[in-house]
Specification:
The complex is a heterodimer of chains A (112) and B (307). Chain A has one helix and six strands; from the N terminus they run H-E-E-E-E-E-E. With 112 residues, chain A is mainly beta. In chain A, strand 2 and strand 3 form a beta hairpin. Helix content of chain A is 8%, strand content 35%. Chain B is of the alpha+beta class and 307 residues long. Helices cover 24% and strands 33% of the residues of chain B. Chain B contains seven helices and 18 strands. In chain B, strands 2-3-1-4-5-7-6 form a seven-stranded mixed beta sheet. In chain B, strands 9-8-18-17-14-15 form a six-stranded antiparallel beta sheet, with no helix packed on it. In chain B, helix 2 crosses helix 3. The longest helix of chain B is centred in the N-terminal third of the chain and has 20 residues. Chain B is elongated and about 70 Å long. Classes of the chains: A mainly beta (112), B alpha+beta (307). Chains A and B meet through helix 1, strand 1 and strand 2 of A and helix 2, helix 3, strand 2, helix 4 and strand 12 of B.
Chain lengths: 112, 307
């Protein structure tokens, strides 16, 4: 009587570990509510990253404006974001091959 | 983005019309047995999160994401369809290194109609319908309901095929099957190499495909750059298929200047594919008159000379 062949090759776990070294996708993207601090209106944007200094990376359909204080709120039931107000630090159009047209990648830093 | 998804509408409980995309990877028991629960979950979570980023890059708003499925809402049907196709291609590319032993397939359903409630807990028959279509699809299929198919621009609806599928709980149902295909990947390069030059010292190093390459101030780094703004383990260059990926792991970030275009990208705990040639600034932003920390050239053909 022989044991059945192993389902996965011996290096399978190492191959998975190699895949996991690629950091794209390590942040769980989520919806946030974005608006100007002094305005009541909020719209939905997608938060795609938070760096160790607390800067947020957001995807938006319109470019955000320099010098405007923005508020970024987590939807009900999700962990709140660290700062009450943010300023635009940098802005660039989406440039990856898979990015849709009219997509802006905005970096917001906590306002002093 | 759903710029029209206004807070006052949520508060008033008004319905909003969206295209819901439900994508699901069926349970893979063998993967859990092989890797153990926590590693298998981490791998599937990363897989779904990559797909979530892909959908977000097509104007999708993530409503829900877990280790087996993701629900994304779109304002436009053609954005949703583009996202569905891109997600299938992303999964194929991501899982390619293990594709010989692990069959990862994505089932996608798209439905258009009203949803209610604030994100991310919104609900409604549109979401139920998208989930049911995903469940009724065969591995790797994208199924659409009539409401999505009817409003697609002519170019986007080309190739849709009417199919009868098994809708669990509702019997058989008609849907639209959307074809998709990924752009062919580049053929493997016979000999890929990476040349790195440190302009400050003139030192040159040549690397070939293999283990990840470490850049930093630490003694373990294969490419050592020693100034105060550089972290000990500042960045990694990993080989994937025939492409090199630059991964920043530093405290101060990395700036990549792409050779021909002159475009400068800032990386901070993120990654990007390396272009054929360019320059790296480690821990400090490029300044006029300041030479880069590293110049690089990547290729499989005859060597070119770096400046």
């Amino acid at each position: 009587m022989t044991l059945p062949d192993a389902l996965f090759p011996p290096d399978f776990a190492a191959r998975i570990d190699a895949l996991m070294r690629d950091p794209r996708g390590s942040f769980c993207p989520r919806a946030v509510l974005l608006g100007e601090v002094d305005a009541a209106e909020r719209s939905v944007a997608t938060l795609v990253g938070i760096d160790p200094q607390g800067a947020l990376r957001l995807l938006s359909a319109q470019p955000l404006r320099d010098g405007v204080r923005y508020t970024v709120e987590a939807p009900d039931g999700q962990a709140p974001l660290p700062a009450a107000a943010y300023l635009l630090d940098s802005l660039r159009p989406g440039s990856r091959p898979g990015d849709a047209s009219a997509l802006w990648v905005c970096t917001l830093v906590p306002a002093a | 983005m759903l710029s029209w998804w206004k807070q006052h509408a949520q508060r008033a409980g008004l319905a909003q019309t969206v295209v819901a995309l439900h994508a699901e990877i069926p349970p893979l028991n063998a993967l859990f047995l092989e890797l153990g629960e926590s590693r298998a979950r981490a791998f599937l979570q990363r897989t779904l999160q990559r797909l979530g980023h892909c959908a977000a890059a097509h104007h999708g708003v993530i409503s829900r994401l877990d280790t087996t499925s993701v629900l994304v809402l779109f304002a436009q049907a053609d954005d949703a369809l583009d996202a569905a196709r891109a997600m299938q291609c992303e999964l194929r590319a991501w899982a390619q290194p293990v594709a010989d032993v692990l069959a990862l397939h994505l089932h996608i359903g798209l439905s258009r109609g009203d949803v209610r409630g604030p994100l991310p807990q919104c609900e409604g028959q549109t979401i139920v319908r998208a989930t049911a279509l995903a469940a009724a699809s065969q591995p790797g299929q994208i199924l659409l309901d009539d409401a999505v198919a009817q409003i697609l621009p002519e170019a986007a609806s080309a190739g849709l095929e009417r199919v009868l599928c098994e809708d669990h709980g509702f019997g058989q149902t008609l849907a639209w099957l959307c074809p998709w295909d990924c752009a062919p990947t580049a053929a493997a390069a016979p000999a890929c190499w990476l040349r790195i030059v440190q302009p400050a010292s003139g030192a040159q190093q040549l690397f070939t495909l293999g283990m990840p390459l470490h850049i930093g101030r630490g003694e373990q780094a294969q490419v050592r750059v020693d100034h105060a703004d550089v972290s000990r383990q500042h960045a990694q260059i990993a080989w994937r298929d025939t492409r090199c990926t630059l991964i920043d792991t530093s405290r101060n970030g990395t700036w990549l200047r792409c050779g021909d275009s002159g475009v400068v990208l800032r990386l901070q705990h993120t990654a990007t594919a390396l272009p054929a040639q360019g320059a790296l600034y480690l821990g400090r932003q490029p300044q006029p008159q300041q030479p880069p920390d590293l110049l690089f050239e990547l290729g499989a053909a005859a060597a070119r000379h770096l400046p």
